[in-house]
Amino acid sequence: MLQTPEATPIRVYIPVVPYFPSNIPQLATSYPPILPKPVIIQQPAPAPAPTLPPPTPLAPVLTPPVESNVKKRKRDASVASDTDKKPRHSATTSADLRRMALTQRNRPSPSPRVPPVATSSTSKRVNRWDAIARSCVASTDVTNLDNLVSSYETVKGNLTNFRTYFQNRGDPYDLSFTPEHVPYVDLEYPMTGVTERFALLGPKDAEGWHPINELMEVVYTITKFYLPSEYATFLGNPLDCATPRFQDIRAQRNKHSRPTKQDPDQGSSSRPIKEVPLYSGNTLRRMERAYKMRDGVGFIRAIKDINYKLRTLKEEENGNQLLRAPASWKGVPPELVMQLYEETYQRSAGPRVKDLVKYQAFSSTTYGELNGGLISEIVQRAALKPGMKFLDLGSGIGNVVIQTALLSGCSSYGVEKLSMTAEIADVVHHVFKQRCQMWGIESGPTDVFQGDFMNHTEKLQSIIKDADVILANNFVFEPALNEGLKALFLDLKDGAKIVSLRSFCDGQVTGRNMGAIESILDVESFEWHSGDVSWGDNVGRYFISTVNRARVGASYEVLYREAQGPSRASKRRK
């Protein structure tokens, strides 16, 4: 072994592999393995690191600008404050450069400049679910319910769209819940002596009308709005129910207690009483559980118990206790209006929905509806109330007409051009009157008729002159039709409001439009939310234009003073 000064010996193993001929495989197993012999070598010591001078500071690296085909957009000329400034991050790799270029390319274009809108100072935020103050108690005399359009009759006439939902859990061979037998159950409504027969079938289409769900919605609505406060838990405590629909019912403020054993403080024996079955007295909970378990016998039994309790309230000596609630309302709750309209639609327009789509696409006759939340907001912003007149130009099946009359109590009219749609609107109007009586509430006068609002008939002209609010769902109206409506609006009285989904003007008065509709309108713009219209889930804007002829005089004086001021050119011509 060799040794050198300042060397550290290390031990390295060099393996020695024996060689065995391939034709003698037994040698590989007969001989023991040969272990490697250690060989000691010397590793020289590492040389000391040389001493280097301190590094000199490098010049800053400039990041090359991002080259892209994106056009430069003009920024706002206002100087941003220190709190608005964000730190800039430089791109140091090609991947960062590509990522920044992609971000610039995908940046949305700035919204186009909108013309200035003259807004009044009376605009405010509104709550769509606030009732409009008015008297809404209906007469107890039930009329026009001989030919009641019920859920049972509607389903029976369109049986191919429904399937079996319930079953008899005690008898799997029971076929009474199949569509061939059309199972049903009757339900009490708030009006005295009024019931409706509901079919107990489910829809084949997952998004179709579900008669059983509607029956349960009726029970929920009665529980929330019609039960007097002393009978808030008469059908069962909503706190025990799993359905979220019960979370905001006023009965939840009543504390619920179900004793499981006798209180020892009452002076009796401490022996526990018999355990009470959970939810045994809560008919609401029993109805929900039977629905989820598809127990048809249990569901019918729960509805019969609910009917018995509701009849007890309706047949009291002091009168129908369910009709006490409408007398105490501030107005008809918008939630009840939507429930009533849904029942009306499914019994009138729902079976003929295929007839409503027979129109020319993207034309002025394209059918589209405003949903209940947006209608309630428009009614509140337009300040509709009893004694006022509302007109819907292109009313369709009368959706807005009947909801407006029910929310505000105003006289509501609608004119529809298409004969098929106007025919369905007559059926909707008939069923709507029946539903109002069944729920025990009073609506304002309504009338939907066929006609072209561009043909100024005597009836239409008289309504327009006296109208307080006019709705024009002109989202897809052709430009020529919008121009024709401008001429029609010149006959409106001062203070009348025009609700539209496309603005008819920008609210500015100039010398060119002094005699046009633009010179007499104050325009306000509001936003509708996703789900407010039937033709899409996007947000949008609607406009409320108020007739104000006083603007013409003030604007005329300003323009007159400007015209009276002599310019140099005019003096030179003299």
Write up what this structure looks like.
The chain has 574 residues and is an alpha/beta fold. Helices cover 30% and strands 12% of the residues. It contains 16 helices and 13 strands. The chain has helices at 27-30, 94-106, 151-157, 211-225, 283-292, 296-314, 324-328, 334-348, 353-356, 372-381, 399-408, 419-439, 458-466, 479-489, 550-564, 568-573; strands at residues 7-14, 37-44, 162-163, 184-188, 195-199, 202-203, 389-393, 411-416, 446-450, 469-472, 497-500, 521-528, 540-547. The strands form 4 sheets. It has a 7-stranded mixed β-sheet with strand order 9-8-7-10-11-13-12, with helices on both faces. Strand 10, helix 14 (479-489) and strand 11 (497-500) form a beta-alpha-beta unit. The longest helix has 21 residues, at 419-439. The chain is elongated. Residues 19-31, 59-94, 101-122, 249-279 and 567-572 have low confidence and may be disordered.
Q: What gyration radius follows from the Cα positions, in whole Å?
A: 40 Å
How does the overall form come out from the CA principal axes?
elongated
Structural class: alpha/beta
SSE order, one letter for each helix or strand:
EHEHHEEEEHHHHHHHEHEHEHEHEEEHH
Strand percent estimate: 5-15%
Major sheet summary line: 7 strands, mixed
**What spatial order of strands do you see in the largest sheet?**
9-8-7-10-11-13-12
Task: State the share of residues found in helices, binned by percent.
Answer: 25-40%
Q: Which ranges are low-confidence, i.e. pLDDT below 50, for 5 or more consecutive residues?
A: 19-31, 59-94, 101-122, 249-279, 567-572
Number of strands: 13
What is the residue-mean pLDDT, rounded to a whole number? 75
Determine the number of helices (DSSP H or I, runs of at least 4 residues): 16
Q: End-to-end distance, in Å?
A: 126 Å
